[in-house]
Design goal:
alpha+beta; six-stranded antiparallel β-sheet; Thiol Ester Dehydrase, Chain A; 6 strands; about 140 residues
Length: about 140
């Protein structure tokens, strides 16, 4: 089910609510890889005027979760169990690209990394997460 949703999203279908709210879009979706793009503007700023770090977390988390979902089987879903991000430079107005790759995939747990770059190719942030695949009763209703 979850894989089908990502397939529809990648094909230009209905966006998830968080993507609509923040404004990011899925631009690449391959086995163990996903790319999100996002146009940062003043509506995404923190009190200091630069891009709010939580927005960077959202697009990185979405890219990493999507990369993990690329290999889910029918009846499986997943959850993020850990997320870490390092911020390297401030962003005000820029086109950002979040590229996520699964680094290690086990039967249930895996590790994913994501680089977020600005329109000049500068590394803005690097995130890492651990995801857990849910099956059977754990996956029901998710």
């Amino acid at each position: 089910m979850i894989r089908k949703l990502f397939d529809q999203w990648a094909a230009g279908g209905e966006l998830p609510q968080i993507a609509k709210l923040i404004g990011f879009r899925l631009t690449e979706y391959n086995p163990d890889k996903a790319v999100m793009e996002f146009d940062a503007g003043p509506q995404h700023s923190n009190p200091m005027g630069s891009l709010h770090g939580g927005v960077l977390c959202d697009i990185a988390d979405a890219a990493m979760g999507t990369a993990w979902a690329t290999r889910l089987e029918e009846g499986e879903t997943f959850t993020t169990i850990e997320l870490k991000i390092n911020f390297f430079r401030p962003v005000w107005n820029s086109h950002l690209t979040a590229t996520a790759n699964v680094i290690r995939r086990g039967k249930t747990l895996g590790y994913i990394e994501c680089d977020v770059r600005d329109d000049a190719g500068n590394l803005v942030a690097r995130a890492a997460s651990s995801c857990m695949t849910l099956r059977g009763e754990q996956a029901k209703g998710r």
